[in-house]
Amino acid sequence: MDSNLRELLDLVFRWVHLIAGIMWIGNSMLFNWLDRNLVMPENPKKGLIGEIWMVHSGGFYQVEKKHLAPAQMPNVLHWFKWQAYTTWISGIFLLGIVYYMGGGSFLVDPGVSKISVPAATAVGLGTLALAFATYDLLWRSPLKKHESVAAPLSLVIFAGIVFGLTHVLSARAAYIHVGALIGTVMAGNVFFHIMPAQRALVKATLEGREQDAALGAHAKQRSIHNNYMTFPLLFIMISNHFPSTYGHKYNWLVLFVIIVAGAGVRHFMNIRFTFKQWLPSLIAVVVVALVTLFFLIVRTPAATAASSAAATGPHEHVSYTAVSLVIGQRCLPCHSKTPTEAMFQVAPNGVMFDSPEQVRAYSERIKARAIIQRTMPFINKTGMTDDERELLATWIQGGAQIP
């Protein structure tokens, strides 16, 4: 497929994905907030579960949650499903456009594994299907009534999947596939559990039968699961902007810490109206997560000679002539006004190294990406060596001198 056409499709589906995701997650958070703030008025109507008053956009809103009596169906009933389906469908298209097309340039990294593009594609898509099936079977089993067992077991399985993907696919692809997995579970909950339960409740009401409260409880359990997954998923959607996470030696651990922290924050936000110590607990989760990430990302000792050179200072003078040769061979194919790498029609993020002044201006960024994090060149497509990284590190520590 033509690269310009692929980029246009990327733009369209990414925009749709973002809009639909905002609507879906916004609805999820709103309804969970409503459930936790309902109050019972004096002399409540029959079937009333609770009500809430709100003010917004110049008016007052009264919202009631209730059990409908048999045959008591309103003329207009609003459903919330298409945001979830649109988010998932557009996300799957994005996965194909970005990772499975273009020869799998973003999908595989020879530095991670020697897997072929077709095999990596099968691993990616197969993981989505198998992970959802495993999750769904677990939470259909009798363990669903014992959340203190099912939830930790789900986390252990999930951690194994995160570890496995980061050791098979490229780092960025692994992170995004974890996000796609979470999105698949969430959309699957809507399609296979929440919507069927709602349709059954509506059907019973229309047929003049009592509603089955167990259906509502089942749908609510899956809805709460989705609610806990929202914060982790939001991070993964923007993770490509943070190479210090996916490019880390222990990227699987970094991601798992962020996922657990995001779900933990969401948990204490959910129970804040019934748990008096919710705020100190939430702060504790945030502090522990930040400290852990600090020691993982910031304080992890450098493991390569180039990283050590960047940290300890110059050992010898390096001329810009030598640096320009490395930049020209390893960086300019992508980071130029006229890239020669077929993956990019324009320089990624507008970063260009066509002149010595540009190289010097980005020297700290080169240090971070090519030397410390080693996420550039992208999946080391141009084959930068450790000696070349050390040379760049020494030049930068020497003041990044240019002619």
What does this structure look like?
The protein has 14 helices and 2 strands. By secondary structure, it is mainly alpha-helical. It has a two-stranded antiparallel ribbon with strand order 1-2. A hairpin with a 2-residue loop joins β1 and β2. α2 runs antiparallel to α5, α6 packs across α8 and α11 packs across α14. The longest helix has 36 residues. The model has no long low-confidence stretch (mean pLDDT 91).
Backbone shape:
elongated
**Poorly predicted regions:** none
Number of strands: 2
Question: DSSP helix count?
Answer: 14
N to C succession of SSEs: HEEHHHHHHHHHHHHH
Q: Strand order, biggest sheet?
A: 1-2
- Helical amount: 55-70%
Topology:
Layout: H1 3-37, E1 48-56, E2 59-66, H2 82-100, H3 117-140, H4 147-166, H5 171-206, H6 213-238, H7 243-246, H8 251-270, H9 278-298, H10 305-312, H11 320-331, H12 356-361, H13 363-372, H14 386-397
Antiparallel strand pairs: 1-2
Helix pairs in contact: 1-2, 1-6, 2-5, 3-4, 3-5, 4-5, 4-8, 5-6, 6-8, 8-9, 10-14, 11-14, 13-14
